[in-house]
Amino acid sequence: MGDEALDTVDAVVLAPPISQRRLILRRFLRNRLALFGIVVLVAMFLAAFLLPYVIPYGYEELDAFALNSPPTTAHWFGTNQIGQDVLAQTLRGLQKSLIIGILVALISTVVAGVVGAVAGYFGGWPDRGLMWIADVMLVVPSFLIIAISSPYFRGKSFMILVVLLAAFSWMITSRIVRALTRSLREREFIRAARYMGATPGTIIGKHILPSMASILIVDVTLNVGIAIIGEASLSYFGFGVQRPDVSLGTLIADGTSSALTYPWLFGFCCGALVLIVLAANFVGDGLRDAFDPTSTRGQARA
Fold first, then answer.
1. What is the distance between the alpha carbons of residues 218 and 175, in angstroms, rounded to a whole number?
2. What CA–CA distance (Å, rounded) separates 91 from 71?
3. Nearest to 101 by CA among 252, 286, 235, 277
4. How many CB atoms lie within 10 A of CB 225?
5. Which of 74, 58, 92, 157 is nearest to 66 (CA)?
6. 3-state secondary structure of 277
7. Count of CB atoms within 10 A of residue 141's CB?
């Protein structure tokens, strides 16, 4: 009996500790909503970029014999007033909204990380100047600015819309990164890098920003949903993606007047928008709980 007890104790003592990455992954995988969000995002991404090669109609093709047709075996989501396939249109809108959402999230997070880290590390006039710019951008009505600017990029690349949306999405995160950088810049590993002759750019890029990678990853995930909502809102009012191209916002705008008489014109694109934003938020919340050791939900799943 004594030998068995000693063997058990030795096994416990010799068991390797769980690595931080495995612990984060285990917390995330135990979050059912986060897993649901991942599955939905992957499924919608694959559908948006693969199904157009399978279905018989393109998003610009017309079927003169099926005008305002309800869902059938020929047109799974029905057709609109001029005979365009609603499924093809929804997939095209989903493509555009996903691309814009991901690009805006990535660009805004990178800008927020660089601006916040530079301001927090150097302090002084760089800090005051960059934070003054962030404060001014926060009070500027972004929707109005983009709406006024939209006639000037009508018919041009949608990347202009991506840049405009990203330009108004980095400020709050940059202030969080700045505060964290100010607490990190006097830590031992930062001092050691400075004494070894590392340049400020090297310290920021290789030590400070990787130390807050978890915050930036969560920020990217949450910003995808925010950016998609922002793009859809602008496109709904005619200030975002322009015809002949489509996004979920333009499809919702076209189907609003027929929401009761021809519900398939409104319901499928609106459902896709709601589903993708919910999924992105579920993934972001799951990542936040997994990375944050003080989270009660994260502890419950640890």
1. 15
2. 15
3. 277
4. 22
5. 74
6. helix
7. 10
Which pLDDT tens digit goes with each residue over 69-120? Answer: 888 888 889 888 888 899 999 999 999 999 999 999 999 999 999 999 999 9
The token pair that represents 294 in the structure block? 């003080």
Name beta bridge partners: 79.
85
Assess contact for 34 and 42: CB atoms under 8 A: no
- Tell me which residue has tokens 């499928």: 268
Round to whole Å and give the CA distance between 159 and 245: 13
Q: Is 279 exposed, middle or buried (0-12, 13-18, 19+ CB in 10 A)?
A: buried
Q: How many angstroms separate the CA atoms of 278 and 284, rounded? A: 10
- Which amino acid is it at 265? L
> Which DSSP symbol is given to 84?
B
Task: Specify the DSSP class assigned to residue 260.
Answer: T
> Distance between CA 216 and CA 109 in Å, rounded?
7
